[in-house]
Fold this sequence. Notes:
mainly alpha; F1FO ATP Synthase; 2 helices; elongated
Amino acid sequence: MTDFALIAQTIAQAAVAAEPAAEAASAAFAPIGKGLVYGLAAAGCGVGIGLVAAATLNGIARQPEQKATLQTLMFLGIGFIEALALFGFALVFVIK
Length: 96
């Protein structure tokens, strides 16, 4: 048996032996992963909404006559950003 075949066989045996421990670790860290998923999704959406609102206020300050158009686009953008937060919330229930 060559050295590479011996190394591959040893790695395969170690992977089979470590599988129960990996399943236990996966179950132990799942709640932490769920919290991180939703926390990062909510934080990212919060930053995105803040940027959209800031850009809208900047646009209204520069061209007040476009206020209605900019507000409509702002609320549309905020709705799409909130949809991403809801996807993160739904992903929490998908993670096992």
